[in-house]
UniProtKB/TrEMBL annotation:
One Gene Ontology cellular component annotation held by this UniProt entry: cytosol
Gene3D superfamilies: 3.30.160.20, 3.30.70.1660, 6.10.140.1950
Ranges where the Prokaryotic-type class I peptide chain release factors domain occurs: 223-239
Organism: Candidatus Avichristensenella intestinipullorum
Protein name stated in the entry: Peptide chain release factor 1
N5-methylglutamine carried by residues: Q230
Keyword Cytoplasm tagged: yes
């Protein structure tokens, strides 16, 4: 591990020098690549230098133990340095963990009502608003691609994107079955019903990831249905794209413009194809995704929202919070942070061949 850290520091200094050279400054593409690599290495190099500084202080304190007048001070210094060194080394291990190549991507998310009829659709609307509020808290862009709503304002199916720093890294843990327990507004006897909604999380594909031939697509246009204003229902603005080789179908009717709907639908199609091809090509990657926090199967219940008791329980963590109102208003970081940490802990556990110096 120290060899990796020394290499990272050397590479960081090399890039710093290259970035200041006139020929690099004149090459915008090369400069951008070097700046990205420099930014990725910077936290590793900073932590490595801080750890070395702590080790130097530790060595000095150990020398002071030989001096009777300084021994007590040295023991106090060593007692404080030991946990600091352990924590800094842990931080370095986390920084050196192999990254999910999709972590910096934007996200395409899909919500579908499950068991529970209209109540499941109303719960889908709660989840849609929750993710919109979460995006707002993180200054991400939230954009509806397509939504199939019920007359009561429920969501049968919704597809949307989240764009911003760290979107996939944090949202990938939301994939799975979400369960709600509450008394429906249509329930006269006050009985608690259990309903479900399924959330799928896909990394948004870039053009270089998925190549789609024009002949592989069938594009149909039709009049939009549902909310959206006069133009939505009077023009053929809605778009349905079928990827003929795979049979994947994507629709978009959120915009009044057919061109905008087509562009949005293509983004979702590319994300679905990227997810499918990647899973087929790299079975080990898919297995790692499932093992991140002990789950990953979209058919598996991951979280329960119990409204009568005001609690939310994440079953992967065994974590229960009595802050349901705040959680469904987008204050989800307490759970998502715990999931990210659990993922790091599991990957550290699997990391072999490394030991604390």
């Amino acid at each position: 591990m120290q060899d990796k850290l020394e290499w990272a520091e050397g590479r960081y200094e090399e890039i710093s020098e290259q970035m200041s050279q006139p020929e690099t400054i004149a090459d915008a593409d090369r400069l951008a690549r070097l700046m990205r690599e420099h930014a990725q290495l910077e936290p590793v190099v900073t932590a490595w230098r801080e750890w070395r500084s702590l080790r130097d202080r530790q060595a000095q304190a150990e020398e002071m133990l030989q001096d009777a007048d300084m021994a007590e001070m040295a023991r106090e210094e060593l007692a404080a340095l030991e946990p600091a060194l352990r924590q800094k080394w842990h931080d370095l291990q986390v920084l050196l963990l192999p990254r999910d190549p999709n972590d910096d991507r934007n996200v395409v998310m899909e919500i579908r009502a499950g068991a529970g009829g209209e109540e499941a659709s109303l719960f889908g609307a709660v989840l849609l608003r929750m993710y919109a509020r979460y995006a707002e808290r993180h200054s991400w862009r939230f954009e509806i691609i397509d939504a199939n709503m019920t007359e009561l304002g429920g969501v049968k199916e919704a597809v949307f994107t989240l764009s911003g720093k760290g979107a996939f890294r944090r949202m990938k843990f939301e994939s799975g079955v979400h369960r709600v327990q509450r008394v429906p507004t249509t329930e006269s006897s006050g009985r608690i019903h259990t309903s479900t909604a399924t959330v799928a999380v896909l990394p948004e594909a870039e053009d270089v990831d998925v190549q789609i031939l024009p002949g592989d697509l069938r594009i149909d246009v039709y009049r939009s249905s549902g909310h959206g204003g006069q133009c939505v229902n009077t023009t053929d603005s809605a778009v349905r794209i079928t990827h003929l080789p795979t049979g994947l179908v994507v629709t978009c009717q959120d915009e009044k413009s057919q061109i905008k709907n087509r562009d949005k639908a293509l983004r979702v199609l590319k994300a679905r194809l990227y997810d499918m091809y990647q899973s087929q090509k790299d079975a080990e990657y898919a297995q790692n995704r499932k093992a991140q926090v002990g789950t990953g199967d979209r058919s598996e219940r991951i979280r329960t929202y119990n409204f009568p008791q005001g609690r939310v329980t994440d079953h992967r963590l065994g974590l229960t919070l009595y802050q349901l109102d705040a959680f469904v208003d987008g204050d989800c970081d307490s759970v998502i942070d715990a999931l990210v940490l659990a993922d790091e802990a599991e990957r550290l556990r699997r990391l072999s061949g490394e030991s604390t110096p």
